[in-house]
Design brief:
Strand content: under 5%
CATH class: Mainly Beta
Order of helices and strands: HEE
Shape: globular
CATH superfamily: E3 ubiquitin-protein ligase SopA
Largest sheet: 2 strands, antiparallel
Oligomer: single chain
Structural class: little secondary structure
Helix content: under 10%
Radius of gyration: 15 Å
CATH topology: Pectate Lyase C-like
Number of domains: 1
Strand order of the largest sheet: 1-2
Length: 162
């Protein structure tokens, strides 16, 4: 797999509105410690990709499909994950400082020990996510779906119908 060629073709696909290039399909790809800083991966297919310790600083992953991806210990500082699909993703120990996660689908995601300092989670779908020992200082959780979120060992947020 020539990652640089895939990323170049995907960028062409994005810039041409789908007329040229090809949408990136990196499903099940082994991208351990990959340098993807500043990459354009909007709408890319990354389901079940192994991105352990990947460098995704300031990467644009808007609406990317990262369902079940292993992003454990990944650097996502200031990454754009707006509207990204991260259901069941493993984000343990990930650096998500100042990341844009507005409207991201994080249902059942594992965010234990993740650094979400100043992350924008407005409108994010965090239902049943594991946020135990995550750093949420100054994170914006306005209108986020927090039903069933694990926040401390043995604790789960429950939204009661009024």
């Amino acid at each position: 797999m020539d990652l640089k060629a895939i990323l170049k073709s995907h960028k062409e696909w994005l810039e041409s509105g789908g007329e040229d290039g090809q949408q990136a399909n990196l499903q099940h790809a082994h991208l351990w410690k990959a340098d993807l800083r500043d990459s354009y991966l909007q709408y890319a297919f990354l389901q079940d990709a192994d991105l352990w310790r990947a460098d995704l600083r300031q990467a644009d992953l808007q609406h990317a499909n990262l369902r079940g991806a292993d992003l454990q210990d990944a650097d996502l500082w200031r990454a754009n994950l707006r509207g990204a699909y991260l259901r069941g993703a493993d984000l343990r120990d990930a650096d998500l400082r100042q990341a844009d996660l507005r409207g991201a689908k994080l249902r059942g995601a594992n965010l234990q020990h993740a650094n979400l300092w100043r992350a924008d989670l407005r409108g994010a779908h965090l239902r049943d996510a594991d946020l135990r020992q995550a750093d949420l200082q100054h994170a914006d959780l306005q209108d986020a779906d927090l039903r069933g979120v694990k926040i401390f060992s043995g604790w789960t947020l429950v939204k009661e119908d009024v």
